[in-house]
Design a protein that fits this description.
Blueprint: E1 3-6, H1 10-20, E2 25-28, H2 32-40, E3 44-45, H3 49-55, E4 58-61, H4 66-74, E5 88-91, H5 97-108, E6 113-116, E7 119-120, H6 122-128, E8 132-136, H7 139-149, E9 156-160, H8 164-192, H9 197-205, H10 212-222, H11 233-249, H12 255-270, H13 280-288
Parallel strand pairs: 1-2, 1-4, 2-3, 4-5, 5-6, 8-9
Antiparallel strand pairs: 7-8
Helix pairs in contact: 1-6, 4-5, 8-11, 8-12, 8-13, 11-12
Amino acid sequence: MDIGYIGLGNMGGALARRLQLQHPLKVYDRDADSVQRMVERGATRAESLKDLATACDVIVLCLPTSDHVRSVLLGPDGIAASARPGTLVVDQTSGDPTVTRAIAAELAARGIEMVDAPVSGGPAGADAGTIAIMVGADARQFDRIGPVLRAISPNVFHAGDVGCGHVVKLANNLLSAGTRLMTLEAMALAVKNGVEGEKALAIMMASGGRNFWMEKYMADYILTGKLKAAFALGLLHKDVRLACQLGQDSSMPMLFGNLAKDFYQMALNEYSFDAPVNVVALTMDRIAGSHVVPDGYSIT
């Protein structure tokens, strides 16, 4: 099985590195340095999308948005113009399930299959081989792609038909985004009313409010002021916005999701799309009048 990987950013690069431990890869990215790093690890450089499409049976993508995916797959010089019938496209982007299903239908008309397989766990989880992979595919496609994905992580889940991987990824990121904000708000409340941040964290970590985001980020990032993160603020806002749009499209009120979306929009207005997502702690401090993040913090 000849495998190509497109999109070697923070997330895609980590996934490709893990996959390459068991499978030779042909790789493509607009950033030449990202490609060169993979070539130095043993990958083969694709000179163009056409070069990759004609050489590979399975083509994996991890790009910023579904619009990027559509362009790479269906653009004038995209994958669909050169890929052989029976080629399987695997989209690991955190994408829009509605767009994913539309792209899959267009590709199917050309004899090309598409499944979605977004991930959760960040670049560190990808490097460690512990990341969760959520697959939208039919049973035959899942059986075909399963061994490839399990080279990245054993935590491969069949979410349902195409698009369902992206649905559960949006649901997961919505929950994660909301948990982050509630944790920051609770910490701000405690600190503003006289409890030291480290003490408040220790007590809540032993209590009912304990959560994954508190465990993983609060002590090492927020309370130290080391706000740099591998995930961009704008990308998380995009995921929350897509989750809220999916709720609206399926006639579901998104009461708390929309609150989270608007908070991340406030942070975007203060900072930038590419700012590390942890800057939301600064926005919380500002509106709460608290001081959870210490002076001398850094975001780069």
